[in-house]
Amino acid sequence: MDNETPEEEVTVETTEQQTPVEAETATSEEATADSMTTTSGVPELTLGSGVPAEAEEDEVVKPEPVIRGKLDKHGVAMGTGRRKTAVARVRIKAGSGSLTINGQSLNDYLRVERDRQMVEAPLKATETFGKVDVWVRVTGGGTTGQTGAIVLGIARALEAYNNQFHETLSAGRFLTRDSRMVERKKFGFKKARKSFQFSKR
Fold first, then answer.
1. What residues have CB less than 8 Å from 172, skipping those under 6 apart?
2. Where is this region: Disordered (predicted)?
3. pLDDT (tens digit, 9 = 90+) per residue, 31-90?
4. 1-26, pLDDT tens digit by residue?
5. Are the C-beta atoms of 99 and 105 separated by less than 8 Å?
6. How far is CA 157 from CA 29, 109, 150, 176, 194, in A?
7. CA distances from 79 to 14, 15, 58, 135 (A)
8. What is the pLDDT of residues 165-195, one digit of tens each?
């Protein structure tokens, strides 16, 4: 009989301890509900919600593009293009659509059709093909390097000629300078990486 009473007292104590915890949780839930109703006019921030709606409405201001070409007082746009060891200096002005490279026509100077299409590409993208006169002086490098230099020079000159062409030229990747160069020759090798023939004896 004596042993049974302590067990009953323990069970009563545990039940009494549980009831205040439940009461506390109920009061905390009521407090949060009250705070929700009182702050209904203010937007709530929750985890993972991201930027508030007010910040999303602000317009993103784009920085102004850097124009590398120049426009002189006579309205002639100038641009310089480089590729490998070739350097092309380009001048563009309103005209009948003539394209001169080192005193020769495009077809006479560039014999490969792919190179001619690459040179005409920025003019056709901006819809100025046949409406402007292009004068080019290019030195150094080979045919491929000179073609890339001319394309970059024409694109920079067109950008200076009309600032509205920047988005079109940038989307077509005409304003990107191709930084690839020929790898230098190393000592003990025939070329940059090609080695001499190995002889066992």
1. 121, 122, 125
2. 1-61
3. 555 555 545 566 666 666 555 555 555 678 878 888 889 999 999 999 999 999 999 999
4. 455 555 555 554 544 555 554 545 55
5. yes
6. 68, 20, 10, 14, 40
7. 87, 87, 37, 11
8. 999 999 999 999 999 999 999 999 999 999 9
Amino acid identity for residue 79 in this structure: G
User: Strand 99-101 relative to strand 132-139: parallel, antiparallel, unpaired?
Assistant: parallel
- On whether the CB atoms of residues 153 and 80 are closer than 8 A, the answer is yes
Tokens linked to 62: 């784009």
Q: Encode the chain in three state secondary structure.
A: CCCHHHHHHHHHHHHHHHHHHHHHHHHHHHHHHHHHHHCCCCCCCCCCCCCCHHHHHCCCCCCCCCCCCEECCCCCEEEEEEECCEEEEEEEEECCCCEEECCEEHHHHCCCHHHHHHHHHHHHHCCCCCCEEEEEEEECCCHHHHHHHHHHHHHHHHHHHCHHHHHHHHHCCCCCCCCCCCCCCCCCCCCCCCCCCCCCC
pLDDT at residue 15 in the model: 47
Q: How many CB atoms lie within 10 A of CB 56?
A: 8
Residue that has been written with the tokens 């985890």 in this structure: 47
Helices 113-125/143-161 angle, 10° precision: 10
